[in-house]
Amino acid sequence: MKIFFLKTTLFLMFLTLFSCETKKQKAEPKAYKAGVILSFDDAYVDEWAEADAALKKYGWKATFNVCRIDSIGAPEIKKLLQMQKEGHEIAGHGYHHYNALKFVKQNGIDAYMKQEIDPMIVSMKKKSFKVTSFAYPYGERSDELDKALSKKFKIIRGRAFGGEAPEKQDSYFNNSKIVFAFDIDNSHIHFSIPYVLELLDYAKKNNKILLLCGHKPVRNVTENYQTKIETLEFICKYMKENNLKFYTLSDLDNLLPEN
Ligand SMILES: [Zn+2]
């Protein structure tokens, strides 16, 4: 009996030691619920607020990546603050909306940070926006830029440009702070409802977080950079019926493996 007890204790100690060891060696990705990040770029505040009114019934949460913060009028700033209060994220999209790659090529990364990033953070913070994520204008990025911006932001979003099969799409969260979104504007060459449905199904079946982006939500499309509210309704309805979670960009920070 005593020997048996001793053996069991030793075995348990061994197990404990072993499990501590594996934890130390490898940061396990955290488990999370399948979901979607709906993000919108530029400064279409009035249309974002209209979309918010239409989609509130789904309990939706979105991320609005704002550029040219100092050109936005007081009533629109008020709307953005209200949306932040309701759980949407207000994130950065550049002080001037420069193409980061082109600007850095011509002026260097220090000038980029000084002219495009630092004044944006200062002004947004002054206006009470908790800016912790950034989306590249035109999705134009580089490893050098990712590295510099990593010091300022928790999550950095680019664009996934292709229309490949879902398992090859870059627009799913991949346990990295650099993420890519698929564009659901009506004018986007790879956009279609059946394809978005494929992307949503893949997220659901494989427990993934799908990242989507758009610009100006509208009822009727009249030009480029417009997302149909009908498209957004379709996505929200699917999410509700299939129990998918609404994430914001900065929510991903909590899901990153700890270093
Ligand atoms: Zn933009």
UniProtKB/TrEMBL annotation:
Entry coiled-coil feature ranges: none
Pfam families: Polysacc_deac_1
Top-rank taxon, per record: Bacteria
Keywords from the UniProt entry: Signal
Residues spanning the signal sequence: none
The protein, known as: Candidate esterase Carbohydrate esterase family 4
A molecular-function term among this protein's GO annotations: hydrolase activity, acting on carbon-nitrogen (but not peptide) bonds
NodB homology domain location: 34-259
Example GO biological process: carbohydrate metabolic process
Species this protein is from: Flavobacterium johnsoniae (strain ATCC 17061 / DSM 2064 / JCM 8514 / BCRC 14874 / CCUG 350202 / NBRC 14942 / NCIMB 11054 / UW101)
